[in-house]
Design goal:
Layout (H helix, E strand, L loop, with lengths): L6 H19 L27 E7 L2 H8 L5 E9 L8 H4 L7 E8 L6 H12 L7 E2 L2 E2 L5 E4 L3 H16 L10 E2 L5 E3 L7 H4 L4 H17 L16
Parallel strand pairs: 6-7
Antiparallel strand pairs: 1-3, 1-6, 2-3, 2-8, 4-5
Helix pairs in contact: 2-4, 2-7, 4-7
């Protein structure tokens, strides 16, 4: 067990191992949740002139969400962290209590001339997580794993709200999208050992069974947006 891992996440991993072992014994293959092809947002940015823009998104454990966006063309940086609560509570053990208001989040810096904010949201809803799960994502349960968009500008808030309405009106998922839009929230980077976690620990059971399938789904559903070499926080180390 990694020294930072909470007891609850260790229990989840043990449980997953048991599920995998059972599937193997039954001759079945274990697969992570598949992504879903969804329409692009009808409301989006009209065309980027700035060289850099920031999006902050929360969709369950930040290890997998960071890993997905690190493989997206046009993205220049993805940092795992916390948003929704106060600075003094922005640390892993406190956020894990579910009582800080924070959600495990990622800060995505991107070039709007290469990929729009709306297209990032399309990937977020399609492969990065399941937006119909309330206050949980897969095996992780609690408000810290909620599906949330933290818009950095009024324009981002407008695009996010319109897209959620679009998806719900079209009944794309067969269940309501429960993603919240929470403006005016600061982002706080997570501890260093959380950064690039998917790339550094691909053989860890939690990553292998919950997060690596998301990368495969990104490549399958968005081949024109996928890049094989991720942009890493620790690339300069």
């Amino acid at each position: 067990m990694e020294p930072h891992m909470t007891t609850s996440r260790f229990v989840v991993i043990v449980g997953l191992l048991a599920v995998v072992a059972g599937a193997i014994c039954a001759g079945a293959a274990f697969q992570g949740e598949r992504g879903r092809a969804i329409p692009a947002p009808a409301v989006d940015e009209t065309g980027g002139s700035a060289g850099s823009e920031v999006a902050v998104l929360a969709g369950g454990c930040f290890w997998g969400v960071q890993g997905v966006f690190q493989h997206v063309t046009g993205v220049t940086s993805v940092v795992s962290g916390y948003a929704g609560g106060d600075r003094q509570n922005a640390e892993y053990e406190r956020v894990g209590s579910g009582r800080t208001g924070h959600a495990e989040s990622v800060q995505v810096t991107f070039d709007p001339r290469k990929i729009s904010y709306g297209r990032l949201l399309q990937i977020f809803f399609s492969v990065a997580h399941n937006p119909t799960q309330l206050n949980r994502q897969g095996p992780d349960v609690g408000t810290q794993y909620r599906s949330t968009i933290f818009p950095m500008t009024p324009d981002q808030a407008r695009i996010a709200a319109a897209y959620i309405t679009q998806l719900n009106d079209a009944k794309i998922f067969g269940a309501p999208v429960v993603t919240t839009v929470e403006p005016n929230r600061d982002f706080y980077p997570a501890e260093g050992y959380h950064q690039d976690y998917l790339t550094l620990h691909p053989d860890e059971p939690y990553i292998a069974y919950n997060d690596l399938p998301k990368i495969a789904e990104l490549k399958r559903l968005f081949p024109d947006r996928y890049r094989a070499t991720p942009v890493l926080v620790g690339a300069g180390r």
